[in-house]
Write a structure and sequence with these properties.
470 residues; alpha+beta; six-stranded antiparallel beta sheet; four-stranded antiparallel beta sheet
Amino acid sequence: MDARKHLIIIKGKDQTDSVASFQFRDGKCEVVYTSAPNKTYNFQSSNVEILPLKKKIDPAQVIVTANGQTISEIDELLDFGGYYRIVRKGKRDLSFHRSEVQFQQNCLTDGKNQETFQYFKETAAAISLVAENGINILSVQYDKIQQVSEDTVLASYLAPQKEVKVPQMPEAVIYPFGLNQSQKLAVERALSSKISIIQGPPGTGKTQTILNIIANVVRSGKTVAVVSNNNSATHNVVEKLEKKNAAFLTAFLGSLANKQKFLDTQTGVYPDMHDWEMPLEKRRQLELETTALSTELNEMLNTKNRIAEIEQELLRLNPEQHYFEEYYAAYGNVLTESLLTYKVSQYPDGVGNHEDIIRANWLGGRTADCVGLIKGYSWLSPETMTIDYGTHGMPDIGANQMYYSATESGPIDTMPDIPGLAVWHEGHIGVYIGGGQVIEAMGTKYGVVKTELAKRNWTHWLKVPYISYD
């Protein structure tokens, strides 16, 4: 019998390739198998189905999944009604009951999608990384792709107009590596999105956020690929997992050397995980408690952020800082008795009202307002250690004018990790010194202090236009 025209189903199994002949007689079906041509087997007629071909499905148009496994390199896809038969060149034909098979549309069959995909392929071939053996890694992967499911991230790029089916976030999300509100939000968005971009200046906890994402994905029984264009970033993730005694979960791959080292260092020894399992009811109870704690944590973080906002507003409105910045602008000169007396007479309200604080804390020391720190540095003569006003090409300008004069700047979450950059928000400027730290002048009460970049309300970064960063 031609298996491309009929299927013989005996007791729910496709026996087409095994049957040499059959005949229905007196409520039974006599079957002769190719493996035993001289013997006849009798089956109840109700246990034997002869299914004619209903239609052929173009395998290029669809992605076929049978029992959860995607089947590729299909030459023919035959629909026999209750069953599908999959024909693959050089391989055994496969038959599945209709309930075992799912079809997804191959979005590469659309002409516009195919053109976009071809552009991606050509771009990868032109600029992608080349491995040690001279192979363009990304280009090779693109060449392997013949089908793209509509559920994939790639399909969203090929056809952005189509509605995206987003993943469902777990009811209980864990944060074993700690968090703040922005990190918590980043984790939740990553778990509930097909693709998520997390940006932030140095020291704001991007690696910590990645580790929390990994923890939740692994907890759900899935695997995670952590990739980067440099080894140090991925090493950082591995080291953090090692500190949590979870190094056995990681495989540092990438180059051939990394893969070989990973294989060579395998010992087959793993932690005793017998007590890691917990009864289903206890786990459900723990998840409910985690969800409740997460809600409570959100409220606490919102309150903490609101407190920080109020503190910032208070600081901006604080008359001491206001008067100091507006009327007592300085750029690093020593505050002498004569200079203080002059400033008190010049600004009796702005400086005079705070003379006691200034005299007790800053008399005899170098004083500067926020932008004065930068101007004083530029005007300083290394030979004499004097600050010579207006020298070395640095004009006497304010914080805002300094920012708007910059030719290289950007939002704070795009800031590169370069010590010496300036950070800015309306009316105020500071100097980034690396490691997530900033030096800034905070007025009469606080003076010049070191603060954490992530805990201040900086909105932009810039390269000071009158300083060379070479």
